[in-house]
Amino acid sequence: MSGRIAYALLLLLLLALAVPTAYAGTVPLEDSGDKPYILVTLPVLADIISGIAGERATVESLVSPGIAVITYELTPRDSARIEEASIFIYVGYGSEEVLGEYAKSIREYRGVVRLLDVLEPAGIASEDNPYFWLDPLRTANSLDYLVDILSRVDPEGRQYYESRAAQLRERLLELDEWIKEKVSLIPEDQRLLVTVRDTMRYYAERYGFEVVGFIVARPGTYEPTAGSVTRLLDAMIEKGVRVAFIEYEEAGTTLREVLETISEEAGVRTVEFLYIESLAPQLGVSSYEELMKANTMTLVENLARGRENGQASAGESVYKGSLFILEPFRYDFMIRGTLTLIAAMAASALVGSFAVIRGWAIFGDALAHGALAGLVVAYFIGASFYFGALAAGLFVALSVSAVERRTRLRADVVIAVTFVTMLSISIALLSRAGGATISIEDVLFADVTAVSPEMMARTVGLSLAIIAFTIAIGRHLLVYVVDPVIAAAMGVRTGILHYSLLALLALTIVTAFFAIGYVPAIAAMMVPPATAFIISRRPVEFMVKSVGIAVVSAIAGVYASYYLDVNAGASAILVSAGMFAVAVATHKAANSR
User: Fold this and answer.
1) What number is the average pLDDT over the span 326-344?
2) Contact 344/521 with Cβ under 8 angstroms?
3) SS3 for 307?
């Protein structure tokens, strides 16, 4: 009976705590201090609102200038800022909307404003094109709505805000005239825009540019495909595009590499302009108006130039084949990407075959997490991404081996501990820095269209070296992974083979990581060998089939990426998974007879 009473009291206590929480969502918003504290998501938005707020309110941006929203990591300190703010304002698109959802959760929906809910009915912005500030007139039309929002936390300041908004509106009209004057220097037939993201449509609409194409079509989507990229390249050649524009903060990302690759093939120059969601104080751009002027001058200075020598003429074809089977390989970058994908997956499958037999299939996952941590460290210290990831991968491999030998823990337990530790290190580093320009999509799934000649040479060369070395020690390595005790009794130097396999795993996973992405690299080391294991009877047959399945999956992945507009690495792994499912089904059917 006493237990039931205790449970009842606990339930009452929980209800008592829940009631004020539920009611809190209906409490009117109040200013917590003498000066309202306005917190917004983006630096460019903070500057626009500061133009209205003046000295009467403090306006801050949650995301620091120079940090991509897609990589921003919320910290407890930032959560406190969200809670303390008089009001939280966000636009409401892609990754930026995630911050708004965080704010709603932290503030229990009190004083959180999604601008698209306000501006879309007025025709100022839309879900598909939220970047209203790229048109100064749209920005000017948004000022009355921003005044209303600020007046919620400071009703007495409405007249002040209206006066400031009127002054800002005049400056925006002057900015609009200035941009039109500068753009008029560009001949109309040269006002062609090719960019990484489809963020410039309002600007193009206002000032008479034609958006020829872009890598990413919608806010919050970051995945190019072979089909979409080749179509963009065709459009660039057909239109006679001279310059492609890459946002400054895209340095080191897959999207930048994709646009650079196809631009090089089309004979088009690539030029950096400033990230439209942020500001760049390090480059002397500290305000929204400076951002618009800097980007306008970048467009004017580059689009007014003549055609570069060697650039493909409008309508000139670089088509390399007419057969359906050759359609995806019209361009050199597709051939490079396909060869790189085949080499990386073949090497991963061969080395993974030994890992599967040894019971280390999941080891590749831990190594990939270690490589990710190394990549993040290399990013922040300005070192080589590849060598940073490789050093971290080797460290993980040796650490797992050392801990396993010094303790009674099984290898899978040690691997699991390492797995979560390295992932946590990566997240902690990113959150400590407030984010980076490396997006999670670039890490999870690279793209074959981004493969440069240098990357192809490195990946194919290392993959062939890995395959050759694995074959050279294959007989002894096979004995070791099947039974280390018997191998030692036979006089095989198991210690050398143990560390050789660890080094092979680390080198293979890091090489594949950069070429095809984190997830495909791990999967290529596990799925083809698992499939081959089911349908093989002899070790050599197992190895050959494992590599064969990986090669077929890579080729099929390229075709799927081209014709179905999906990621090549992901589709290659799905093909492998399909083969695995068929192998399991047929194996079960054969055993049942």
Assistant:
1) 86
2) yes
3) coil
Work out the widest C-alpha separation in the chain, in whole angstroms. Answer: 91
194: Cα separation from own chain's centroid: 20
**365 and 499 both lie in a single domain:** yes
Residues 49, 263: Cα–Cα separation, whole Å: 37
Region 197-206 average pLDDT? 90
Residue 362 forms part of a structural domain: yes
Q: Hey, how many other C-beta atoms are within 10 angstroms of the C-beta on 387?
A: 12
pLDDT in tens, 220-243: 455 677 788 888 999 999 999 999
pTM for the structure as a whole = 0.71
- Helices 363-381 and 494-516 pack at an angle, to 10 degrees, of 60
Does 144 share its domain with 187?
no
Provide the 3-class DSSP secondary structure of residue 113. strand
For residue 393, how many other CB atoms are within 10 A of its CB? 32
- Beta-carbon count within 10 A of 384 CB: 11
Residue 220 belongs to domain spanning: 183-303
Q: Tell whether 265 and 213 lie within a shared domain.
A: yes
Instruction: Flag whether 499 is in a domain.
Output: yes
The amino acid at residue 8 is A
Two tokens, residue 117: 């809910």
pLDDT band, residue 21 (cuts 50/70/90): very low
Cα–Cα separations (whole angstroms), residue 486 to 356, 480, 489? 18, 8, 5
| Domain-embedded: residue 468 | yes
